[in-house]
């Protein structure tokens, strides 16, 4: 926040005040983490949840905290750590279909299709309507489209001749960001290593 005025006009002010008065109060920390999640401030979310986990221990950490930590780790590209958080959450509440959907989403994103299918099947066996809640069906569809675009980018990049290998990651990013409308120039020289 650039100014105290901006901070005062957010939902964070009462929670920050609460954290200042009682910094190790788990309910306030969890609510603060939720707000950080909604604002996509994953670094702050992780710092808040680390402090929560330090004060109560990993096994006493609320399930929602484990989930939020997993989501933040996934956004940071730390898939193994995200998986550990989701596994811990599932261990605490195995009958919550949304936890299995989080795991399926992570496994799909990290390329573990068999594990994604298993987690999705588990979620649907717990609650056949679970995909209808919280836009899960749409989220999985968007993930599949993103993976398809990445695959197209990889295939396009392997067909490039004369394109410097050091530039391929930027090209892949460009194709994924701009999708099918991206025009790829294919020079006629061999790829330089």
Report what the structure shows.
The protein has 193 residues and is an all-alpha fold. It has 10 helices and no strands. Helix 3 packs parallel to helix 5. The chain is globular.
Give the topology.
Elements (H helix, E strand, L loop, with lengths): L3 H5 L3 H10 L4 H13 L3 H15 L6 H13 L3 H14 L4 H13 L3 H14 L9 H23 L9 H11 L15
Helix pairs in contact: 2-3, 3-4, 3-5, 4-5, 5-6, 6-7, 7-8, 7-9, 9-10
Task: Please outline what is shown here.
It is built from ten helices and no strands. Mean pLDDT is 78; it is low at 1-5 and 179-193. Helix 3 runs antiparallel to helix 4.
What keyword list fits this structure?
disordered C terminus, 10 helices, disordered N terminus, mainly alpha, 193 residues
Order of helices and strands: HHHHHHHHHH
Helix content, binned percent: 55-70%
State Rg: 21 Å
Helix count, DSSP H or I runs of 4 or more residues: 10
Residue fraction in strands = under 5%
Poorly predicted tracts of residues: 1-5, 179-193
Q: Describe the sheet with the most strands.
A: none
Task: Name the shape in a single word.
Answer: globular
What number is the mean pLDDT?
78
The total of beta strands comes to: 0
């Amino acid at each position: 926040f650039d100014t105290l005025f901006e901070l005062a006009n957010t939902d964070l002010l009462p929670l920050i005040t609460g954290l200042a008065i009682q910094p190790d109060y788990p309910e306030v920390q969890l609510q603060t983490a939720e707000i950080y999640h909604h604002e996509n401030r994953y670094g702050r979310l992780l710092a808040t949840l680390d402090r929560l986990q330090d004060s109560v221990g990993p096994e006493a950490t609320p399930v929602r905290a484990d989930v939020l930590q997993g989501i933040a780790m996934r956004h940071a590209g730390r898939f193994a750590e995200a998986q550990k958080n989701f596994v811990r959450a599932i261990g605490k509440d195995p009958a919550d279909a949304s936890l299995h959907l989080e795991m399926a989403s992570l496994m799909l994103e990290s390329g573990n299709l068999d594990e994604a299918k298993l987690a999705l099947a588990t979620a649907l066996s717990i609650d056949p309507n679970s995909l209808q809640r919280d836009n899960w069906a749409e989220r999985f569809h968007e993930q599949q489209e993103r993976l398809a675009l990445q695959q197209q980018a990889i295939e396009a990049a392997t067909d490039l001749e004369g394109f410097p290998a050091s530039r391929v990651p930027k090209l892949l990013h460009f194709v994924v960001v701009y999708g099918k409308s991206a025009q790829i120039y294919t020079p006629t020289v061999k790829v330089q290593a």
